[in-house]
Each structure stands twice: as C-alpha cells, then as structure tokens.
C-alpha cells in the first residue's frame, strides 16, 4: 500500500476517505461472494473479472477497517466480523428491493411479470395453460424462466417461482400447491421389444433412462434405489432437463420416471406397474410484498388455480394410478391443449 506522501493525497482528504460510508455496489458484491462460496463463482454470476471483484471486496474491507473474508482450499469463509456485516447487508438489500417494488403497486394490470418454474412443469403443464391467462390479460407480458436451480425471489431473480424443493428462506411466502407423483413409464416400442418388468428385481435386467438435475436429487435417489448397481450397462441415458428425458422414454431408449399427468396430457408412453413411485411437493414462493402488485397478484392467483388438486387429480396428495386418472378427472380433454406438441396424425 502506498504511503500518503507517495500518493500525494492530503491528510484531510485521507480522513474524509476513512469517514466515507461503504459503497453499496461493494456491499452487493460481498453478498454475492458469501452466497456463492468463491470469487470465481461470484465473478461469473456478476459478469466481472475475478481481479476486479477482489479489488472491490478489498475496498469494502478498507472502508470498514475489518477483515470480512478468508481464503481456504475449498473456497472462502466469512469471518465473525464479516458475519455481522453480512446480516446488515442482507437487511439493506431487502430494503432496496422494497423501494423498487413500491413504485409498482398502483400501476394498472399491464407490464411484465417474471415467473420461474422447473423445466418439466414449465414445458408440459404451465406453458400450454398460460394461453388462458394471456387472453384474460393481454397487456401482461409473462417472462417465463424454465430452470432447475431454484430462483431467489428475495433477490428479485423472479417475481414468483414454482419449484419442487421446499423453500427455506425465512422471509419468503411459500404456498404448497400440491404433489407431483413420478412413476415409471416406457414406450410401447420398448415393451414390444424387451418386455415389461413387474418387479424391481426384473427392472435390474432392463435399460433405464435417468433424470438428474437440481431439485430432483437424481444421484442420491439412484444410490438409494439401486445400491451398488453400476450405471454402465444399466442406464442408457442421463438427462438434466425433463423435455429431453420425456423424449428419450417416448422414443424407446429405456424405462424412465415421469409425472403421472404425462398420461393425462397425451404422452405416448404406458405405465410400468412396479411399486416405485416418488412424490414431490410443488411449492409456489414469492416475496410477500409482490403480492400487493396487481399484475403479480393476478399471476399468483392463476398459478394456484392451475394446480388445484380438486380439478386436476394428479396433483392430489394420494397417488392415483395413471390408468385410473380418467375416473377422477371431469374437466375438458387436456390432450386438446397439446395438439401442437403431439403433431399431426398420419393420414392416408
């Protein structure tokens, strides 16, 4: 560090710099580094160079006169002093978000609403039904993000999020929408070629398509279901997105797990009757203040209705076999919403 004389900065100015409050941008970057556990991950997320990010953190430490972070082999660690600053920084961030939301509360039902949802629910359930919402509110633009990592609604990554991982942040509003039951399915072409297992033991002699992504706990579930089983020679494909996973199963790559509503929306797969069904609770999460914004409130109400278990029985807590869903569903033919996805039937 240069001396005051070498830098030719008057002592009065040095005292003023020492008294200057920390820059909010430095505080925001400190939050990012602490949340992501490393300078590299935070730099990639903020689209900054690592050197610039480290320099901004050093500026913050200098202005506070505290050591906030220490480096370790596995990443960074927040010091006890840094933890105190971190708590205050989180409160500042929440207050800043509150200011930005305040101006939106009295606006008409128009503008942009950001909805984050897991890729499978977004592609196969939410998007086809959003047409109804768009027709009711043509001045609303829905910015849909289909992604498996949960969106941080406190930090305004989305106005609301639909996820299959229970929210843990204490300041968010979490609404349990229902339960998704994931059951084994196979293409008719696969069953005609390789047969259909009736027990878990028989399944071990078949080919399996596996879904491994954030929120699905794919690796953990595989180890629990098939302890000691090698994936080589057993799994034919591992997919990180639900659309690729569905197509792999539908084209006969192997047996795989899909939500039971796959049968209700016309997916060309048949259930495999082995007792390996996994439930995933579906959660809607948002900051409590955004519910006061009319356009966001409209989308929240629509989402809750779109997962109404009384209307859509595959979201009930109790498992209903895919073959019996027709006995419980009394609404319109959902397959009609997916005619563009299913394509034209061959003629002649």
Features:
disordered N terminus, globular, two-stranded antiparallel ribbon, 348 residues, alpha/beta, seven-stranded mixed sheet, Arc Repressor Mutant, subunit A, 2 domains
Walkthrough of the structure:
With 348 residues, the protein is α/β, with parallel strands linked by helices. It has two domains: 4-102, Winged helix-like DNA-binding domain superfamily/Winged helix DNA-binding domain (Arc Repressor Mutant, subunit A, Orthogonal Bundle), CATH 1.10.10; 111-341, D-Maltodextrin-Binding Protein, domain 2, CATH 3.40.190.290. It is built from 15 helices and eleven strands. The protein has helices spanning 4-7, 11-19, 24-36, 39-46, 50-64, 80-102, 119-136, 188-194, 200-203, 218-225, 242-250, 261-264, 294-306, 325-328, 339-342, and strands at 69-72, 75-78, 111-117, 140-146, 160-163, 173-186, 208-211, 235-239, 256-259, 270-271, 278-286. The strands form three sheets. Strands 3, 4, 5, 6, 9, 10 and 11 form a seven-stranded mixed beta sheet that branches. The protein has a two-stranded antiparallel sheet with strand order 1-2. Helix 7 links the parallel strand 3 (111-117) and strand 4 (140-146). The longest helix has 23 residues, at 80-102. It is globular, with a radius of gyration of 26 Å. Residues 1-7, 13-19 and 343-348 have low confidence and may be disordered.
């Amino acid at each position: 560090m240069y001396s005051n004389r070498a830098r030719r900065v008057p002592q009065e100015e040095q005292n003023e710099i020492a008294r200057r409050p920390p820059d909010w941008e430095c505080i925001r970057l400190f939050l990012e580094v602490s949340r992501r556990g490393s300078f590299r991950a935070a730099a990639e997320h903020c689209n900054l160079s690592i050197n610039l990010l480290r320099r901004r953190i050093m500026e913050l430490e200098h202005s506070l006169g505290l050591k906030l972070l220490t480096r370790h082999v596995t990443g960074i660690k927040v010091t006890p002093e840094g933890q105190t600053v971190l708590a205050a920084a989180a409160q500042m961030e929440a207050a800043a978000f509150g200011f930005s939301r305040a101006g939106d509360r009295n606006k008409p039902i128009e503008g942009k609403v950001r909805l984050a949802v897991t890729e499978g629910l977004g592609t196969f359930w939410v998007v086809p039904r959003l047409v109804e919402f768009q027709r009711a509110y043509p001045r609303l633009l829905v910015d849909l993000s289909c992604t498996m990592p949960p969106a941080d609604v406190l930090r305004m990554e989305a106005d609301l999020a639909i996820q299959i991982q229970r929210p843990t942040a204490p300041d968010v509003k979490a609404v349990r929408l229902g339960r998704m039951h994931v059951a084994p399915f196979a293409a008719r072409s696969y069953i005609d070629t390789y047969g259909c297992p009736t027990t878990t033991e028989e399944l071990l002699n078949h080919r399996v398509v596996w879904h491994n992504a954030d929120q699905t706990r794919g690796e953990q579930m595989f180890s629990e279901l098939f302890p000691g089983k090698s994936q080589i020679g057993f799994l034919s494909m591992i997919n990180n997105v639900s659309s690729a996973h569905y197509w792999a199963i539908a084209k006969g790559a192997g047996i795989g797990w899909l939500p039971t509503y796959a049968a209700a929306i016309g997916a060309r797969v048949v259930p495999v009757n082995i007792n390996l069904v996994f439930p995933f609770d579906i959660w809607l999460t948002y900051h409590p203040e955004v519910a006061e914004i009319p356009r966001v409130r409209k989308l929240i109400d629509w989402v809750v209705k779109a997962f109404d278990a009384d209307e859509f029985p595959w979201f009930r807590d109790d498992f209903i076999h895919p073959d019996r869903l027709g006995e419980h569903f009394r609404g319109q033919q959902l397959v009609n919403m997916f005619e563009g996805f299913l394509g034209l039937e061959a003629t002649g």
